[in-house]
Amino acid sequence: MRVFKTILFSSLIAISANAAADVWAEREALSNIQTELAALEALVLNARARSNASDRTQFDYEILLSDLRKIQHGISHHLTVPMEPVVPSTIDALSVNYTEHKQ
After folding, report:
1. Is the pTM of this model over 0.70?
2. Dist CA 46 CA 71 (whole Å)
3. Which of 12, 32, 59, 86 is the most buried if burial means most Cβ atoms within 10 Å?
């Protein structure tokens, strides 16, 4: 029975260590996503600067930037308050249409 308790205790320690490692791996991945989103925002600003306002079809860079910032904010919030429950009514939906056509 003592051997069983030792094996069970060792298994529980190993499982909790793996769970803690997974949490930190997730946090690191989310931090990497934040870095990539910041770089993506710079690319969007560059593209917006190169856009032609007289084109018949316009890409709405402001909506895209707003969506990127919503994602960044969500990740940042999760990293600072990971145990706060999510209330579905507080989730801000992303836009679905980035293209505007002029008549």
Report:
1. no
2. 20
3. 59
Cα 69 to Cα 23, 36, 46, 63, 64, distances in angstroms: 24, 12, 16, 10, 9
Q: In angstroms, rounded to a whole number, what is the distance separating the alpha carbons of residues 67 and 44?
A: 12
d(CA 4, CA 87): 43
Task: Return phi, psi of residue 36, to 5°.
Answer: -65, -35
- H-run or E-run covering 71: helix 61-80
44 vs 40: CA distance, rounded Å: 6
Q: Note whether 37 and 68 are within 8 A (CB).
A: yes
pLDDT one-digit tens code per residue, 59-103: 999 999 999 999 999 999 888 876 666 666 666 777 878 777 776
